[in-house]
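Researcher: Good morning. I'm working through a list of sequences from a screen, and I'd like to move beyond sequence-only analysis. For each chain I'm collecting a predicted structure so we can compare shapes side by side. This is the next one on the list. No need for commentary yet; just the structure.
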Amino acid sequence: MTRNGQRLLLLIDSEPAQRRLVAAIASRRSWRTLFADDAGSALSTLATAEGMAVDAIILDHSGSDADASALIGDLRARRPSLPILVLAANGSVAAAVAAMRAGASDFLVKPIASERLLAALEAALGGSSAGELRPLTEKLTANLGFGGIVGSAPQFRAALAIAAKAARARVPVLIEGESGVGKHVVAEAIHSASPRSRKELVCVNCGAITANLVESELFGHEEGAFTGAFERKIGRFVDADGSTIFLDEVNEMPLEAQVKLLRVLQTGEIQPLGARHPREVDVRIVAASNVPLLAEVEAGRFREDLYYRLNVVQVTIPPLRERAGDIPALVRHLLGRIAEQPGLRALGISEDALQLLSSYDWPGNVRQLQNALFRAAVLCDEDGLTQEDFPQIAQLTRGRSATPGPMGAAAAAAAGITLFRPDGNLRPLDEIEADVIRLAIGHYRGRMTEVARRLGIGRSTLYRKLGELGIDQTAA
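Model: Good morning. Structure tokens for this chain:
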């Protein structure tokens, strides 16, 4: 860590635009970035006095798996305890397996949303993983129909029944649930059970697109429509003509784009940027939100008229902690799918490991469970997984079992928020505010969307306050 309290990131990437983007995202959480173009300059940097202060490394994987693995091995030999995150455009399971076996701490796929990259950095510093391992997620969940979705909890099965009933209709569907609960899986099942299943489902993560490019990505643009529009672009709604479009994290869509989406729902027409005339499209919309969308409407961040247009049928997926009885079946199912991936094999799992996994509350839901199993399978040399293959989960479970329950935790934390200084004068408002935010982060276990919602502020405002007040979300 640098003298002024900033953490130091070494980014190995020769692409200027990508370097600027990653550095800008990291700076939001008080990271300062050093740059290296290649393996040689990265190793040279680490040998310097400033390089010795590096807290984490991000390696842009744009070459071969062998080259990336060799560099990871060299970095790991030089700095054994340093977190190494691999950021890759290649979304193959083989690339993730190779990187992690070489010693990578986490594997993320471009384009990466800013919140996910920051969460991965924070988790890596704490010795855990927050990367989505998106190539694995896609391989394991692709084309699962309703019959292939694992889970017997009544609330979960009721949600699937609503989704299955709506699948054959043309009406929009809104899927709500925390990040990682499987909203994408349900959207795939809805599409597969619909008359539009002959064409591919078109997926758009609204939270992974910068605000000024959302309209272009969704609706397209003409050449010269804006600065940098050097050629005509076909939008994702045209790609989805005759099919279904899945708008994930629709709650992140800017208000300007919401107006255009509302027009599509009302008229069936899109207006590409710079186009003189609208174009008719036949698209079924399935949207998803990781926060209650009605609360976003009440906060003024989402249009009420659009909300009711999208919410013709609502499907609410419960978090994994509310259906812990499904975990053993989910684990065995996911291990079977993992075994089908290149470079991996069939593995059993011990009862003590299943008990450990079932006792954890999985704030990242099914996606986090899937990632933990994938990591364990990659690194396992035996014929089956045991508790020892999940050291991070064991550590987190032990730590949480030793803390007081929700009321006790809140009371203990609240007792530490004082309004007055020892001299009898009030404390500055920013100090009190920082204590309240730390309390919220601890109480809601780092789920920043929930923290922002409970504090009555937007996520961008929350992250700005974290930077201004010098709060480390992992230290709360």
